[in-house]
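From the pipeline queue, job 12 of 40. The input is one protein chain; the requested action is below.

Action: predict structure.
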Amino acid sequence: MHSDPSDAIDRMNRFVQRMNEVERDLTAPYVAPKDAATLILVDRTGRVPKVLLGKRHARHKFMPGKFVFPGGRVDPADGRMSVARSLNPEAQANLMKRVSRASPRRAQALALAAVRETFEETGLVLGIPVPDVPTVPKGPWTAFAQAKILPDLADLHFIGRAITPPGRVRRFDTRFFTLDASAIAQRIEGMTGPDAELVELDMSAVTGVMLEELDARIADGFGHDLPVPFYRMPRGRFMREML
């Protein structure tokens, strides 16, 4: 059942207010944002759902010490990786909105980047077993081939997009995805620790906002056809649009 429209407006105003209240240094020269992807992995096996967060090292230039979802920049290899099942058509269409040179391949690469980054940072192999795996790009994707697992994008939900404000040293155009923890096909040990990208709560504003967006989306039925919130800062103030 869908929530009351007035509740949705209240949520929208609250989310935007939270984003604008964050103190930030926006004095750096302009840099174009890089494509990035993040995954909110949800474990619903207990009475209270849990999400996977990790703490970034203090030495990182981008959000040091913050608790974040696994994620990072899109790699060229992500566009060449095979999948067991493709993105839901609605999710694919939303990923191609407000994008220059949009294509199904680029949309799929964004989703695969979230899966790959989660593996690199946590050792979790997300996908389904297959009898034969085609040739995969060198690098992290070889672990999927060795395990005879291919990413399954059909159940991946695209729930939000946010662009780092102008004036930051590093900027990302990040797509937020969510997936149930039942998609974990294998766990490779030794991927996390003192020198890993994620070492295990000081959350960034966008992390907290996207958790609230996920909660609101579930309340609205959690369908692929729901509009996707897009946060950006065109004139010094964050705004929330719907894709």
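Job complete. The longest helix spans residues 104-122.
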